[in-house]
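Dig into what follows:

_____
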Amino acid sequence: MFDLPGSWVWDYWFADDGEKYHLFFLYASRALKDPDARHYRASIGHAVSDDLVEWTQVADALVRSDAPAFDDLATWTGSVVRHPDGTWFLFYTGASLAANGKNVQRVGYATSSDLHTWTKAPGPVLEARGPWYETLDSDEWQDEAFRDPWVLADPDGDGWHMLVTARAPQGPIRGRGVVGHAWSPDLRSWELRPPLSVPSADGFGQLEVLQVEVVDGRPVLLFSCLDEHAMPSRAGSRGGTWVVPADSVLGPFDIDEAYPVTDEGLYVGRLIQRRDDGQWLLFAFRNTGDDGSFVGGVSDPMPVEWRGGRLVRQEVAAARA
């Protein structure tokens, strides 16, 4: 498990350079006292590991910019990919406050030659825009959702795709969460495209921290959402991280088919394939303790497998066998 005694640790993502695994994570000082205050104090930390179990913290990756800037409030969740020329790209969410006090989220990036020293590109490259995505014009939420970029190479070699946590401007309030989508030829310039899912009466108000992978030959989408932000039909599910089966890493994704792979005690499930044996592993951060309070810290790896057409943690599969 990765944790910091003086800070809360929550959302995170991985990179694998072929020799070491890299963990990028959001953290904020426990001196804030209130864990809910951590979001507006978030920086992006960095740790490395040889085995995905023991981690060594190294210098931070990114902090917020001086105002005025699209990331002058906080730097939030993202992903890391490597360009064919060897340059690493860290895509991240930049948070700022609008004049009406609402949180606005945009996507920016930084580059590195070694995964340790990062240089921010000037300004954001993507933001929410109609007609496909809900913006500040809506009063239904406290934020303009456009965050958690997950970037992947096109399966057919046609540039790059980005999946984004976003909302549609119509549909049931707690069912408007959609898989936002953008495309790029070079990782630097981006074209906003229609979402890869639709709002649903059995859906979620936000599909947080998206990830797509092909696990043992089967494409899957992962996202996280708690009961309180989902449609009433999901009440009592106590789900934290959800899985959606798919025909392709580019969807379209039927969010109605989502099922939980963790309960609400574990949030932001991420998959990574272990290099030495090809085993797929699930991580998550510890969301709540027995008393319901926030905990934080990234879990140890949990092996997953397909069982009965569903992706499950192996210990869960063994218990049901």
